[in-house]
Amino acid sequence: MTGSQPSPAEDLVRRARALVEMGRLEQAEETARRAVAADPDAPAALLTLSRVLQRRGDEEGALGAAGRLVAVRPGSAVGHSWYAGLLGDAARFTEALPHAREAVRLNPGSAVELGVLARVASAVAGCADEARAAAAEMLRLDPADPVAQDLARGVFTRLGDWEAARAAAQAVVDARPADPRARFRLGEALLNLGRLTEADGAFLSTLRQRPTRDQLETTAVVLLEAGLPDELRGLFAQVCAALGRPDPTVPHAAGTDADLIAWQLSAAELLVEEAGRPEAARPILTALYADNPGHPRVRTALAALRYDTDGDAEGAWELVGPLVEGDHDSADTHAVAVYALADLGRLDEAAALARAGCGRWPRSPFVFEYLEAYCHGERRDHAAVLDATERGLRAAPHHPGLLYLRGRSQLTSDVAEAVPTLRAAIDADPGAHESYWLALALDRTGDRAAVEEVVAAAERETGADLRSALAPPPNG
Question: Closest by alpha carbon to 190, among 201, 181, 179?
Answer without folding.
Answer: 201
